[in-house]
């Protein structure tokens, strides 16, 4: 007879379960990752316990079963969940052995203290403002070509080069905004954020989603639509923030 912790779905009704497993907002994949990691780290689903069924989680989070499966598969690859077959099969939480990436993440969190949210807020303020300003200031074919080159480079990037080329694209947006001081501030915050991002798994689904968002942001800028450029950049940054909170918050 299997132990009850291995065969019974975790009970997540009421209280903290309802708070965590509420409908996600804009970045379905990234926010699903964040919610699942929060439930694991808070002990709502303990090692050895099975996740609720895909059907239940998809309904509660208001995401497609495809998105949910992608999130669970990513957490399997990151060492937080394992899949078991058979009568009592499903997706089970495990206690991952610390990897060098997780050790690095722990060090960064320790160094940051409570400053993670400060970094995320500063990034939001600077980069949404830069996107809005770029949409207002874009005025030459050279600026347009510069953005399109950076977008193409990022979209075609190999995983090993992705962070670097992603940063170049975001800095190109700041350059088009035409405020050198702003570009310098964004370069500083991107350096700090990249150190944090390097400490979490590089997820293929997140890269694909980011590339789609990049294309939409650049389209808003080149169309001269400041409100849309700001809104799309805010949604894009929220996806990265969800992953950072999920993986880095104890």
Question: How would you characterize the overall build of this protein?
Answer:
With 250 residues, this protein is mainly alpha-helical. It has two domains: 4-93, Arc Repressor Mutant, subunit A (Orthogonal Bundle); 100-248, GntR ligand-binding domain-like (Four Helix Bundle (Hemerythrin (Met), subunit A), Up-down Bundle). It has twelve helices and two strands, in the order αααααββααααααα. The protein has helices at residues 4-7, 15-20, 28-41, 54-61, 65-77, 100-112, 116-137, 141-155, 159-177, 180-197, 204-222, 226-248, and strands at 81-84, 90-93. The chain has a two-stranded antiparallel sheet with strand order 1-2. A hairpin with a 5-residue loop joins strand 1 (81-84) and strand 2. Helix 7 packs parallel to helix 11 (204-222).
Topology of this structure?
Elements: H1 4-7, H2 15-20, H3 28-41, H4 54-61, H5 65-77, E1 81-84, E2 90-93, H6 100-112, H7 116-137, H8 141-155, H9 159-177, H10 180-197, H11 204-222, H12 226-248
Antiparallel strand pairs: 1-2
Helical fraction: 55-70%
Q: Sum up the overall morphology in one term.
A: elongated
Category from helices, strands and their pairing: mainly alpha
**What's the overall average pLDDT, rounded?**
87
CATH superfamily of the largest domain: GntR ligand-binding domain-like
Output the keywords.
250 residues; mainly alpha; 12 helices; Arc Repressor Mutant, subunit A; 2 domains; disordered N terminus; two-stranded antiparallel sheet; Four Helix Bundle (Hemerythrin (Met), subunit A)
């Amino acid at each position: 007879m299997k132990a009850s912790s291995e065969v019974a779905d975790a009970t997540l009704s009421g209280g903290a379960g309802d708070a965590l497993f509420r409908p996600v907002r804009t970045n379905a994949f990234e926010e699903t990752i964040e919610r699942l990691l929060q439930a694991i780290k808070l002990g709502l689903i303990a090692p050895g316990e099975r996740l609720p069924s895909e059907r239940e989680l998809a309904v509660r989070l208001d995401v497609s079963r495809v998105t949910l499966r992608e999130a669970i598969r990513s957490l399997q690859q990151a060492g937080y969940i394992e899949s078991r077959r058979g009568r009592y099969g499903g997706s089970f939480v495990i206690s991952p052995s610390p990897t060098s990436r997780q050790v690095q993440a722990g060090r960064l969190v320790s160094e940051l203290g409570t400053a993670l949210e400060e970094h995320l807020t500063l990034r939001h303020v600077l980069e949404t403002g830069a996107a809005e300003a770029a949409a207002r200031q874009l005025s030459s074919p050279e600026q347009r070509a510069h953005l399109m080159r950076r977008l193409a480079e990022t979209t075609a990037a190999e995983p090993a080069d992705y962070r670097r080329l992603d940063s170049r694209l975001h800095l190109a947006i700041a350059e088009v905004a035409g405020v050198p001081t702003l570009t310098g501030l964004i370069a500083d915050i991107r350096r700090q954020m990249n150190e944090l991002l390097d400490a979490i798994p590089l997820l293929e689904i997140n890269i694909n989603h980011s590339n789609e968002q990049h294309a939409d942001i650049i389209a808003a800028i080149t169309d001269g639509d400041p409100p849309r450029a700001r809104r799309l950049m805010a949604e894009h940054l929220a996806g990265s923030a969800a992953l950072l909170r999920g993986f880095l918050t104890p």
